[in-house]
């Protein structure tokens, strides 16, 4: 009747099924239709999305995806590795799911509940809560609950940037990188942005990013002038959290900063926004503006120290 063991579901943002215009269009349609992601007036956005964004953006973005594609999209390959590695740590089922695209979050929840798991622990893989990411997972969970006659016990992890195991894992990865490659003049912590209007309405995501970076810098013993926090991945004409990553790298290059290392601790897996936007586009911006050396420090992905941290987060909530 029921399996008494809990199951863990790791949830990340999502990605297209293929690096093609059609697949990117399907993905962006689902993603950008979520009112948690784009908080524009619904009727206006319905038409802007269909008449401007979806006819134009997918072709360009599909090329960017093609440039980072492996056997699959990196974010999905990493999710699979993370789930496998974490499953090795407990006597319980661990699955991964995506908020947009596949494997769909609600389908994975159905499967686990149908197998009789009577407690599901949902861990969104965003270290810093934002309504636009973790909030969207909560919405999807609430929608799913309404479809189930028998609702399992549910635990939703809000976020985990304060967990010492996660802070140690990020600090150690930076330390190891600097031991291998030497130290750059500047260490830039780049986080995905959100529109300033979301912050004005009460989303404290930006503060959580600043606190995270400060705690990591403290572990590394960095002086204030050695590091900085910026925000990347702007979308649309609104003002987003600043300072912006690209503008900062351009300014540094022009001002004579010779070497930078960039780390993106808001991304639990490498993806389009780190591999292409940071290690591709922003590298070019810095070098073009006069910088001499640019290095991207990879996300924690399925590193054992990351799995240690995720294990600690799960154990703290089970
Ligand atoms: C209004 C739009 C967007 C908000 C708000 C937003 C917040 C947000 N996103 C992430 C993490 C990721 N975003 C990724 C891609 C991506 N993000 C947006 C838009 C918003 N994000 C778009 C349109 C895209 C797709 C690419 C593009 O068309 O430019 C990804 C990468 C996924 C992949 O397939 O590799 C991640 C991860 C966070 C953490 C966040 C708020 C805190
Ligand atoms: Fe995004
Ligand atoms: Fe981007």
What features would you describe in this structure?
By secondary structure, the protein is an alpha/beta fold. It has 2 domains: 7-160 and 305-317, Rossmann fold; 164-297, Rossmann fold. 50% of the residues lie in helices and 15% in strands. It is built from 11 helices and 8 strands. A 4-stranded parallel sheet has the order 2-1-3-4, sandwiched between helices. The protein has a 4-stranded parallel sheet with strand order 6-5-7-8, sandwiched between helices. The longest helix has 27 residues, at 42-68. The two termini are 22 Å apart. The ligand C=CC1=C(C)c2cc3[nH]c(cc4nc(cc5[nH]c(cc1n2)c(C)c5CCC(=O)O)C(CCC(=O)O)=C4C)c(C)c3C=C binds next to α2, α5 and α10. It comes from Alloalcanivorax venustensis ISO4. Pfam families: Ferrochelatase (PF00762).
Structural class per helix/strand content? Answer: alpha/beta
Classify the beta-strand content into a percent band.
Answer: 15-25%
What is the terminal-to-terminal distance?
Answer: 22 Å
Mean pLDDT: 97
Provide the list of bound ligands, each named once: the ligand C=CC1=C(C)c2cc3[nH]c(cc4nc(cc5[nH]c(cc1n2)c(C)c5CCC(=O)O)C(CCC(=O)O)=C4C)c(C)c3C=C, fe (ii) ion
Low-pLDDT sequence parts? none
Tell me the total number of β-strands: 8
Write out the strand line-up for the largest beta sheet, numbering strands in chain order: 2-1-3-4
């Amino acid at each position: 009747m029921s399996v008494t063991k809990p199951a863990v579901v790791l949830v990340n943002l999502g990605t297209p099924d293929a690096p093609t215009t059609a697949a990117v269009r399907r993905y962006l349609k689902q993603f950008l239709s979520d009112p948690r992601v784009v908080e524009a007036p619904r009727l206006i956005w319905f038409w802007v999305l269909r008449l401007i964004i979806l006819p134009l953006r997918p072709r360009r973005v599909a090329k960017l995806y093609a440039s980072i594609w492996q056997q699959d999209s990196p974010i999905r390959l990493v999710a699979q590795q993370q789930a496998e590695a974490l499953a090795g740590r407990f006597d319980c089922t661990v699955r991964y799911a995506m908020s947009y695209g596949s494997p769909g979050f609600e389908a994975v929840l159905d499967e686990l509940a149908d197998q009789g798991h009577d407690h599901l622990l949902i861990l969104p893989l965003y270290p810093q809560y934002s309504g636009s990411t973790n909030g969207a997972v909560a919405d999807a969970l609430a929608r799913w609950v309404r479809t189930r006659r028998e609702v399992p016990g549910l635990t939703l992890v809000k976020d985990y940037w304060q967990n010492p195991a996660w802070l140690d894992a990020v600090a150690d990865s930076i330390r190891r990188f600097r031991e291998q490659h030497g130290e750059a003049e500047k260490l830039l912590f780049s986080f995905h942005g959100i529109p300033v209007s979301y912050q004005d309405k009460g989303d404290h995501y930006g503060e959580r990013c600043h606190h995270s970076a400060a705690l990591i810098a403290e572990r590394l013993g960095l002086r204030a002038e050695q590091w900085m926090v910026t925000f990347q991945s702007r979308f649309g004409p609104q003002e987003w959290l600043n300072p912006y990553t690209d503008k900062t790298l351009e300014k540094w290059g022009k001002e004579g900063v010779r070497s930078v290392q960039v780390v993106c601790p808001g991304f639990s897996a490498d993806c389009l926004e780190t591999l292409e936007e940071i290690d591709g586009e922003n590298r070019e911006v810095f070098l073009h503006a006069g910088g001499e050396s640019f290095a991207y420090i990879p996300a924690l992905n399925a590193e054992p120290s990351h799995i240690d941290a995720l294990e600690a987060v799960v154990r703290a909530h089970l």
